[in-house]
Predict the 3D structure of the following.
Amino acid sequence: MSLKHDMTGVYLPGDSTAVLRELAVPEPGPGQVLIEVGASGICGSDIGYIYHEHKGHRGVDGPAYRGVVAGHEPSGRIVATGPGCRRFGSGDRVIVYHIAGCGLCDNCRRGYFISCTSPQRESYGWQRDGGHAHYLLAEESTCVPLPDELSYVDGALIACGFGTAYEGLRRIGVNGDGDLLVVGLGPVGLAAGMIGKGMGARRVVGVEVSPQRREWADGLGVFDATLAPEPDAEATAGLVADALGAPGALTAIDCSGSRAGRSTAIAGADEWGRVSLVGEGGTLETEVSDSLLHKQLTLYASWVTSLPAMAELAGNLARWGLRPEHVVSDRFPLAEADEAYQLAAGASKGKVVLLPSEEPGS
């Protein structure tokens, strides 16, 4: 096929704007593929650490944004391959795992490119061009097959938020033996609720401050109840217990990244419960004896997921008949990236995605 020579990409100057620039369509080198981007999600970490201000993922001492094309949640179709590619070819539909690691360290060899500490480690949309463009140059090693049953929007959501939620739920072993409490119903929390249902949780209860987000979550048909938190975590845990008809949830996951949210997840867990922390930022503050020791709780901390687990998740979602795109509340063409980021940074009900192949008004 004949490819365009130029394309549009979205950049984040760090002043709460998203700007469009023209750049050349790259050519794949050894072990690389060129992807026509079908969908690219806007992540909360991009909002907090790049869109508003130039900081790295863990603050000023973390890996900094290098002024590249933004977007680390891409999915699309391979249109060209470089020398040495063996797993994928032109026409293949893929999800892009958003970190390119060194490939040699223990974490990389386990598939956890996110935890690679080599200077060679690069994140799409942070240190190398990401998915907010018509085309993306990716390492073949970071590509995950996208099942035919799933859309490009589904794939974009799996690339980060759904993968993060899945890893957190895998750590705590969500299954049909107990209920699941999800604290924070942003995109990752919505993903946790959907995946929790797929993994067999008996009942799924969500806690969220925003009435708008609770209403959106209710419309997904995933949560058995969505609750507004009380000022005190123990009081909120009482609401959770009432909703479940049980002392608490066997498994709980905090997706809020807030001190109050983490306290709620711990308070809402039943004896011998398992609590997963996946929300970035903030602090953890808890009373130890009654809240942790006497309840025999186990706490897990989880950062994104592995490449094999992401592939496993994509297959599971197709098998379960679940569509991540249902948590998307707003879709924008690439030309309206600034409006998309304003909404994602403000009052969006659910997930916001960019569709590079669509034109304004289509």
